[in-house]
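Before we proceed, please read the two lines closing this message. Let me know whether the C-alpha cells fit the sequence:

…
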Amino acid sequence: MGYGYLVPLWSFLHRFIAHEIRYTMNAINIPRLKLKRAEEHLQELEAALTSFDKLNPCMLIKDVYPNDRRQLFRARFAIEPPPILGIIAGDAVHNMRSALDWLVCQLSLLNGANTLQGVEFPIFEDIPSGRLKQSFEYKIRFLPDEAKQAAEVLQPYHTGHRAELQRLWILQQLDITDKHRGLIVKGMIMFIGLPNIPGLIKNMLNDGTIEVIIPIKDYEFNPKPIAEVAFRAEKLIEPVTPPMLWKIYNLIANGIFPMFTRYFPQ
C-alpha cells in the first residue's frame, strides 16, 4: 500500500477535527474555561504566598532610647521569595489575556469569520492612528458593530497619560514580559501598622530605616511587619502585587465578559 492512500484520509480527519472544535462546543464556554483556569492559578498563588508567609520572611530590629522615648526600627527581609511565585503568577496572567483573545475569536466565528488570522482582543495605550488604527480594526474586523464599539470603549487610551496604570494595560505588559523571560519577583513590599497615637511621628530615612517617635513614656510598641510579593513588567512604573492580579481578573470576569456575552447564543 502506498502513501497516496493516507493523503485523502488525513485531509478528511483534518476537516473533521476542525469541524468538531469549531462548532460542537458552546462558544461562550470556551473563553470561560480559560478564565476559570486563570482563577485556579490565582488561588494557587494565594496558597503559595500563605506558605511563604509562614516562613516569617520579614525581620524587624528594634532599638529603644528611653531618655527621649525614641524607637528606631530597621526592617529587612530574611528570606528571598521563591521563583515559583512568578511562574504561577505568569500562568494566571497568560490565561486572563488568552481568555480575552478567545472571547473575540469565538464571537468572530459566530459572526461568520472564515479565518482567525490576526484576530485578538486589542489593548492599546495610545489612540491608534495610521497603521496602528488599521491594526486595531483588523483584530476585531469580524465582530458585530456593537461589539466593536465595546472593544473600543475598553481601551486604556481613554484615560490619557495615566493609561499605563489601567488594569488592561497592566495585564498586557505582564503577559508580554512573561512570554519572553517570565515574571520576575521584584521583591517584597513591607507594611508596618502604627498605633493611632496623638503626636506620633514616622520618618523614612534614606537607607530604608523606619524611625518612629512615640511621645508616650513606657509605651510598648512591637509591630509585626507584613510582606507582600510584587512582580515586575518592563514598561510598568510600579511593580504589581497579587491583589492587583485579582482586580484584573474581576474586571474581566464581571466587567468585560458580560459586555460581550449578549452577542452569544444563550
